[in-house]
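Notebook p. 47: complex prediction with zinc ion.
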Amino acid sequence: MTASSTDWAETGPEKVADGIYRIPLPLPSDSLRAVNVYAMLTHQGITMIDGGWALADSENALSAALGQIGMGMEDIRRFLVTHCHRDHYTQAIAIRRKFGPEVAIGIGEKPNLTQVISDASRARRPTSARAAILRRAGAIALAHDFERTTGQSSYAAEWELPDRWLDSGAQLEAGDWVLRVIETPGHTRGHVVYHEESSHLLFAGDHVLPRITPSIGYEPTQARYPLRDYLSSLELMLTLPDALLLPAHGPVAPSVHARVAELLDHHSQRLADACSAVGRGAGTGLEVAQRLTWTRHERSLGELSISSQVMAVMETMAHLDVLALQGRLKSAANPGAIVRFQPA
Ligand SMILES: [Zn+2]
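Predicted complex, structure tokens below:
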């Protein structure tokens, strides 16, 4: 079985290596369509990479897919989660409550998970760090719309801390496989990938996606330079032996290195585009985002949904901050104020 380019999100297990299955799980009205979790079958039970979003449909799909490979939910021994986003983490917690497997995630996600749990327990909106970036970008109205329209989206019941925090470089045995935890900050500050070197497999989470470019730094506590972190995490992948790309969204792809090269090209082009927009007079993150085009359909910023505009402006700020860091632009701001960029 191999998923063609269009049917990767269809329900059911796809064998990606002996004893390892990709299982796409549904997401609610999400442009990502589905999230892939991976089941590694061992004599000590199943090691799952990522857990999916805690939803009844998703749990049913996982249970049915495990049934197709002769397993059940009670066989899951642990979840190794790549990062704290809800579509990867929350179902691991839900299944832990019912069946008791261990849940582990990178130590770098501790600030994010602590913040989410604290926001959720106080029914506080989880938008403030992102709204602060929008204000730095001069997108005051968008920040307002975002805070007004984004409900309290962290339900306290979905979130708990993991059993175990993983350090970068940790080696985890799963049957005959050995998974090495590699910290890849950028998409979130504590994102990790799991590398199985002898089988040439990389469980890449949202770090390297085959079709789309991952969002950068969309998380409850902000890293100062998420794009700088992301680009070095991409370059780190090129120092490892090449591997089969097992992404969290999209089909399996033959080469991590080939896709990383494309993502690095994409960002260097976006950096160049943002730099030249400033050269042509755009001064703030919002003004630059308005001069760039978005999605593969080349839409203008105003044609996007509010949540996509938020991500677009945040991503533009991440690019501008890197350009200033690289000395290609100058920036000036008082703390808490709108940042203005100029050619260096
Ligand atoms: Zn994610």
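Notes: Residues 4 and 251 are 7 Å apart (CA to CA). The longest strand covers residues 34-42.
Next step: compare against the earlier run before touching the bench.
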